[in-house]
Design goal:
Distance between the termini: 56 Å
Largest sheet: 6 strands, antiparallel
Structural class: alpha+beta
Order of helices and strands: EEEEEEEEHEHHEEHHEEEEEHHHH
Strand content: 15-25%
Helix content: 25-40%
CATH superfamily of the largest domain: Transferase(Phosphotransferase) domain 1
Length: about 350
Amino acid sequence: MSGVKNSDQEILKIGENILKIRKGNREILVPEMIGNRYIVEGVLSASSGFGLILFARDLHVFGRKVLIKARDYKGKIKRENLDNRELIAKARSEIEFELKVLEVIRQINVPNTPVLRDWIKGYCPSINWPEGYVIPGKPYLNDLAYDEPYIVLQYVEGEPLSEYLEKNMRSMDLNSPEWIKIVLSLSKQLLKMFRKMYAVGTNHEKIKCIVYQDLKPENIIVTPSKNFVLIDFGGVAVISKNGRIANYGVSTPGYLAPEVEDRSMKDKFDHRADIYSLGVLMYQMLTGIHPQTTMTLKSQVANLDYNKLSSLPRIKAIIQKATKKNPDERYQTPDEMLEDIREAFNALGSASKSHV
């Protein structure tokens, strides 16, 4: 067994083509090599669900750095559970759906999204060795473990916004013009992405609108130049021109819009759900309050205290409008919110922070 320590993770080789990576309080099993082409070097981000983003190098292109979207089945596969095959099949169908979404994203040229480089099938050790399964020499579900799909993306230098916030928010004056500019810059970049996804129907025969739906810090990469890149499209919903919604309801507690939680409001579900989630994210970055800590036992929708933003009246008004419970009372388009964000950004240079 060999081990390598990076700044935030420890990598151990524990078997043939099996790495155990300790990142934070997580232990993650990943292949050392994917498809005889990609060498895994670490984990960029690990969601609370299945999703992983791996660092890797492409041996076919001079060791070029790439990111790989993978699945971690640890804790999901239960030993001797007959539903495991169905669970894996569903997860793989989600990967295929994400591939189709990424192709549309490429076609409509959505900014601040990584280029799809490849997709490939390979070994998945967390299927072979699920948590609690310890029968030496007899791997579990061996017929499925070598057929796991992986999405290969353009390398993006940076760190997840969740880690960036954890490192910086405690020492940062959240009312400082410098921090407010970062928050507004993030908002502007995201709204430009949403604008493209909202307008996809003008150039697509079947799709009316793409809703990112699962906006949260874990799905955003902060680059060294303070640009922001959406990295995970597994939770995207696609609204067809015939009214059908594919992948509706995939969102994270605290960030989800009311119409995502309450299926009786499904007829109001569209791009305005992303506007809502962006308002929640802005609130978190400007108050330091994680939205999940504001939820009640009855609802996974954040219960925001707008009085925490009283020192920033202009931005408070933007967040209040973006996070209205009724989608019809929110900003109706990304451009509408973008206009107010730009005005607030420009006001930073001409007014004191108490009037931003």
